[in-house]
Structure formats: structure tokens, C-alpha cells
Amino acid sequence: MNAGLNLEPYWMPFTGNRYFKAHPLLMQSAEGMYFTTTDGRKILDGIAGLWCCNAGHCHPRIVAAIQQQVATLDYATAFQLGHPGVFELADRLTAMAPGGLDHAFFVNSGSEAVDTALKIAIAYHRMRGEGQRIRLIGRERGYHGVGFGGISVGGMSPNRKMFGAMLPGVDHLPSTHNLEHNAFSRGMPEWGAHLADELENIVALHDASTIAAVIVEPVAGSAGVLIPPPGYLQRLRDICDRHGILLIFDEVITAFGRTGSAFGAETFGVQPDLMSVAKGLTNGAVPMGAVLVDGDIYSAFMTGPEQAVEFFHGYTYSAGHPAAAAAGLAALAVYEEEDLFERAARMAPVLEDAVHSLRGTKHVIDIRNLGMMAAIELEPRAGEPTLRALEAFRLCFDAGLLVRTTGDTLALTPSLIINEPQIAQIVDTIGDALRSID
Questions:
Q1: Structural domain spans, the chain
Q2: Rounded to two decimals, what is the model's pTM?
Q3: Which residues have a Cβ under 8 Å from the Cβ of 133 and sit 6 or more positions away?
Q4: pLDDT score at 2
């Protein structure tokens, strides 16, 4: 650790601050698939930073684009002004997007993208004369960031219980994750599509005329890579269509190659009305998110005097900060020119076979995967939930591997540039860690 570095003033997010500051893990640099710690150790990154560095760390083209942009234009206000880069990025991003998602509203993060999408949905119905549509439907074990909108529609209880009041008028679909029926599934599990029909019960309870939108992750990432059964997302789409409800896909994690396609919507063949993205949009190099919006929704706002503000919402950096826009343009070019989405689709079976080789390993009660995502769920230690996975995380790090824990699940979301020996190293390291703990 750097001599004289004072760890105390920084209140770290989603971290046991007291334990960390007694046992700090500090990164000094990164390149490709590896971090380097402050004490000079190489750490294989099994989680792409945090689901975001899809092209690997410090890609030269992205680094150069950011450096050049900062030296040319450091900032331009989002309100009544713009800069060429953000318009170019919106054009490039919407050209990639599925279906009619042909407008982009830029923000700083996935959390902001979700809250923005929820506001667009409610405001859209109001613009159409259905201002009573204010209810929002999320899903149990869903994660939609940490704004009040996101935690209200989200279904991860630790993110909610400390903060008391949520947004009013929110309900939740059940999760499809069920170990009795779906344990050790490869790809999409067979059981659970019928749970989408619970949306009809929610509609009957609240009346469709009060519901603005349903929001789900195509794959629930932060809850531990919870993969939908075949037909589940299509059923949600059909029910929403019947009742005039908007369908929002939170693709902060699944976009930009993670499922083997540009977007999870393409992998599952279901078209949302709104889509939140972030993380891989800039390859994690500069904070940025966006909401991709169906053209009919955008058009509903474009009424009244042409100089009037159509949507009273935005952030200091929501014009697409110039450095973020430059990073986004470079990242999208890298994804295309290096065929990284296609590479992810090719490597997905390799990752699948590797992680499922851990079936039967001590403590493992489930393994699941889709695309370049996998999860290894562990039997919780009696009276000490989450600690077994946390111990495995620390042993893996000591052995030169970074994984992610969520509850008692180890999540793997490596960069799309990973190779077969690195996948083998990940699985071998996890296996060794699990066999050495109680």
C-alpha cells in the first residue's frame, strides 16, 4: 500500500468499510484482462471491472479518444447547447439498437438511466391524456440501481430496507429463480415461463388504467445471473401490449455483447419500449448511461411551441459529457471492428462447459450461465449467510483472481476478450478455493 495513504475519509460503497480498511485491496493499474495491485501482483479480472470493461482494460483506442477529447473540449452544457460528439454517439447507438429505439437520452450511470426511463414512461402516459397511469411494476430480486426509483422497482431487500419509504404505487412480479426446478441449467432454464402470467393478477388488482410500465432485466445480473425461461419475456411483452403498459428492459448489464448479441433484447427476441444502458457503453472508461426510447414515445413529447422544453428532466452531464461521448464512440467502434459480440457468442460454450465442470464441488448447489455470464451458487453457512462466498472471494483474490459475490453466489462476467486458458484458470482457482473452505 502507498506509504502514508489515509484510507479513513473515503466511505466506500457496498463495502464492509471497517474490514476493508484493516485489510485493503488496492489496484494500481490495469491492462487487458489484468489488474495490477499496489504491491505489484497481477490479478486476472473475472468480472470485467464490474460488468463494464467488455473490451478489456485500458484499450488503446478508447484511451486515445478520451485524451484527445479532454484536450479539445472538456465540457459543454447540456441545456440549450450541445457538441458534435454526443449527436454522433446517439446516431451510432440508436443504429445498433433493436427495433424502433431510435432516440437516446444520455445520463451518467445505470441508476440515472433507470430513473429517467421511469419518468419518461409516466410522463408519456400523461402526454397522451392518461395521467392516472402512475404505477410501476418491478420484479423480486431485480436490481435497477440505487436511486429512489430504482430501489422502489428493484427487488433486492438489503438495498431497500434501510431507507424506509419507497415510491408509492409500486408492485413486484415474482422471481423465476427456483433451485428445485432450475438448478444446474445450461442457458435458459425450462421451468418458470408461467410466472409471467402473474402480471395479469397485478393488472387485475390495480386495474390496467393505473399502470405505466413494467421494468425487468432480461437477465437479473446483480442478484446472481438469474436467467429467464423460454417464452417468459415474450409473455410479459404480450400482456403489456394487451393493457397499454410500457415494457422497459434494464440492459445496464446485458447490453454490449454480454449475452452474445449487441443487446439482450436481440438474444431473447423481445422488443422493449424503453431500454436503459450504461457500463459497457464506454467500456467503463468514463461514467455514462443512456435511455433508448421508441420513436412513438419520443414523438408524443414533441408537441406545443417548438421552443418549449418538452421534458423537464436532465443532469449537468446528461448531454453526454464530451469525454464520455468520445469514449462511447471509441468503444462501439472497438466492439464492431474487433468482432467482440461474435467472439462472446463463440466463447460462451467454453465458459459454460468450464463452469459446469464445478458441479459436485464442495458447497456448490447450483451453476447457471448464459452468454459471457455465469454464477456458482453456494450452500449458505449455517447462521452466517454470505460469508462462505466472501471467504471464497478472498481466497481467489489471494490466488490472483477477481470474482464477484452477491449473497452466497460467485458471479463471473469476464471481458469479451478472454481466452480459453484464462477461463480454465478462473475455474481452477474457484475450485481450489471452494475445496479449502468449510
A1: 17-55+339-435, 63-337
A2: 0.97
A3: 122, 125, 126, 209, 210, 211, 212, 244
A4: 66
Say whether pLDDT at 178 is over 70. Answer: yes
Edge-to-edge, what's the strand order for the sheet holding 289-294? Answer: 101-107, 289-294, 274-277, 246-250, 211-216, 135-139, 170-173
Over residues 270-298, mean pLDDT:
98
Going by C-beta distance under 8 Å and a sequence separation of 6 or more, which residues neighbour residue 327?
62, 65, 66, 282, 283, 285, 286, 288
The distance of Cα 161 from the centroid of its chain, to the nearest Å, equals: 22
50: which 3 cell numbers?
464490474
CA atoms within 13 A on the CB side of 394: 11
Q: Which percentage of the chain shows pLDDT scores above 90? A: 96
Segment 416-436, tens digit of pLDDT: 999 999 999 999 999 999 999
To which CATH superfamily is domain 17-55+339-435 assigned?
A: Aspartate Aminotransferase, domain 1 (3.90.1150.10)
Q: Which listed CATH number (1.10.760.10, 3.40.640.10, 3.40.309.10, 1.10.10.10) goes with 63-337?
A: 3.40.640.10
For residue 1, pLDDT beyond 60: no
Rounded CA Rg of the chain: 22
